[in-house]
Write a structure and sequence with these properties.
By secondary structure, the chain is an alpha+beta fold. The protein contains 12 helices and 26 strands. An 8-stranded mixed sheet has the order 23-24-20-21-22-19-26-25. The chain has a 7-stranded mixed sheet with strand order 5-8-2-3-4-1-9. A hairpin with a 2-residue loop joins strand 11 and strand 12. The longest helix has 33 residues. It is elongated, with a radius of gyration of 60 Å.
Length: 548
């Protein structure tokens, strides 16, 4: 056994807390601080309803305002009936003041529209949700995203105009609103009123151009190029290049309309017209409707065709045909009824306050003086018709008749109907001609003519045989020889020939002899016996005295 002394162990008392616990405690403290910061900075969770989740990714798609991150998409779920998408988004604490009932959301992604190409920066970074805060104080946590970005940016000033039209699809969101060719606003929203059965188009006109909107302003569509071929000819109107590409709407004060004053409210409701011509027609609020009855074709007469008086438009065709009146017992004179209106504003100046009763009395006097309507051709190319009014034979006993609630405007046959009637009369006379007898007589005449021609041909053949004989062919040579001899004979009696000179000298001598024989001839003439007894001696006369 060993004699060594055993070693005594030293016992020390340990501390209660080890330094190694500092690290987990510090980590716990940092985690708690981060949790506090997260909870403290955590904003409100909102729900955004969208028709589709195209381009939306959980944990990656941000919600931005002026390109600053204010939220993040945390969940994307389908609705209970699968008709839309519900997106949950966690907003930052500072963005809670943006959430009210006028706040708008939309997805920013590449788009090609009437305003051009936008959202190209999201091709690489991905789509994000844009928020446009509203100015309301009513809080809201569930929103419906817009299909397209709003036309008016945040804080834009101006006026909104709501236009109504009978047809939808006339305008689209983003289409330009122009004034004299300059873009002053955009189409902001389209909808349809089920009760009124009209399409509604909401426009936003930016400041300061909203001052151009006055109580006399009217809105009409622009299609870029407007080509109309009507009864009054071909009309071509070309608008701006932007309207040519995307269409749009324009406004202004039509000719003849009062300018008016600016609108007091920020939202204005007005009608939307298809074109400027419709605007002008709509200015005449006071008019009288008439029925015109025609017993001729109205093909080519369309709704909107003009009613004129000596080339001046006084009204418009409203319905063609309106109704057909069939007389009792006789269907040979069926008349087609056309509904028209006569605009009082086209006949009288705006300063004259003409009542309808006064107009009725005036038009009745014109009817008695022979005022009538008739169809006329306005365009030979298209066959379009219009109604012209003019004075015909007066009828003092004329009385106005009615068709329902409308007075009947007297009519007469137009120029085309008269031409057709003349052609029909000519054809009737032509049909009365005894063509068979005429044809038989013509046949006999043709037979006689053929016999005459045959006889003439035989005569010509015999004449050709006579001419072809040698004796006949020699006659021209003999005649020519005789003519030459006659010419030579006549040449011998010319003034320069010898025969002519001898004859002239002989005639001179004969004339001299005759002059010398004149006294003898006179003596013989006075006293024929002087040649036998000689001439008696004549004594000189003796003068005698004259006794008074």
């Amino acid at each position: 056994m060993s004699d060594e002394t055993p070693v005594q162990a030293t016992i020390k008392e340990q501390k209660k807390i080890s330094a190694i616990w500092i690290i987990p405690i510090l980590a716990l403290f940092i985690g708690a601080w981060m949790l506090f910061q997260y909870v403290n900075n955590k904003g409100t969770e909102i729900t955004i309803i969208m028709p589709t989740a195209e381009g939306i990714k959980v944990g990656k798609t941000e919600i931005r305002s002026l390109n600053v991150k204010v939220g993040m998409v945390t969940a994307v779920t389908l609705s209970e009936n699968y008709d839309h998408i519900e997106i949950k988004a966690q907003m930052s604490k500072d963005s809670e003041r943006m959430l009210n009932d006028k706040t708008q959301f939309w997805v920013v992604k590449p788009r090609v529209g009437s305003e051009g190409i936008s959202g190209l920066d999201t091709i690489l970074s991905g789509a994000y949700i844009q928020i446009q805060p509203g100015d309301s104080k009513t809080k809201k946590l569930t929103f419906e995203a817009l299909d397209l970005p709003p036309v008016a940016p945040l804080g834009s000033k101006g006026k909104r105009v709501i236009l109504s039209h009978n047809s939808a699809g006339k305008l689209s969101v983003g289409d330009p609103v122009s004034y004299q060719g300059f873009t002053v606003g955009r189409v902001e929203k389209t909808s349809f009123d089920l009760k009124a059965k009209k399409a509604l188009y909401q426009l936003f006109i930016f400041e300061p151009y909203d001052d151009l909107l006055l109580s006399g302003s009217q809105f009409w569509l622009t299609s870029g190029v407007d080509v109309q071929l009507k009864a009054d000819g071909l009309k071509v109107q070309v608008d701006s290049l932007q309207s040519l590409l995307s269409g749009g709407v324009t406004f202004g004060i039509p000719a003849g309309e009062r300018v008016g004053t600016p609108f007091a409210s920020d939202v204005v409701k007005l009608p939307l017209f298809d074109n400027y011509e419709q605007v002008q027609n709509g200015l005449y609020k006071q008019y009288v409707k008439f029925i015109m009855e025609f017993d001729e074709t109205i093909r080519g007469l369309t709704v909107g065709a003009p009613v004129e008086y000596r080339g001046i438009r006084i009204g418009t065709v409203l319905q063609a045909p309106y109704d057909m009146m069939v007389p009792q017992g006789d269907t040979s004179s069926v008349k087609i009824q056309v509904l028209i209106k006569i605009d009082l504003g086209r006949l009288f100046s705006a300063d004259r306050n003409l009542s309808l009763s006064t107009f009725q009395e005036t038009i009745e006097k014109h009817f008695k003086n022979g005022l009538k309507g008739q169809l006329k051709s306005g365009n030979l190319l298209t066959g379009a018709l219009f109604i012209d009014t003019e004075f015909d034979t007066p009828n003092p006993d004329f009385k106005i008749t009615k068709v329902g609630e409308y007075d009947v405007f007297p009519t007469k046959k137009g120029g085309l109907a008269m031409i057709q009637q003349q052609i029909s009369s000519f054809m009737d006379k032509f049909n009365d001609i005894p063509l068979n007898e005429v044809a038989g007589s013509m046949t006999k005449t043709m037979d006689s003519l053929n016999q005459t021609l045959t006889s003439a041909n035989n005569t010509f053949d015999k004449l050709n045989e006579i001419i072809s004989q040698k004796e006949v062919q020699a006659i021209p040579a003999d005649v020519q020889t005789s003519l030459q001899q006659l010419q030579q004979t006549l040449a011998g009696f010319s003034p320069n020939s010898a025969i002519y000179n001898d004859l002239q000298q002989t005639l001179d001598k004969v004339e001299k002899v005759m002059q010398e024989l004149q006294p003898v001839l006179k003596q013989i003439n006075d006293k024929p016996n002087s040649l036998i007894f000689g001439e008696d001696q004549i004594d000189d006369p003796i003068p005698t005295k004259r006794i008074n």
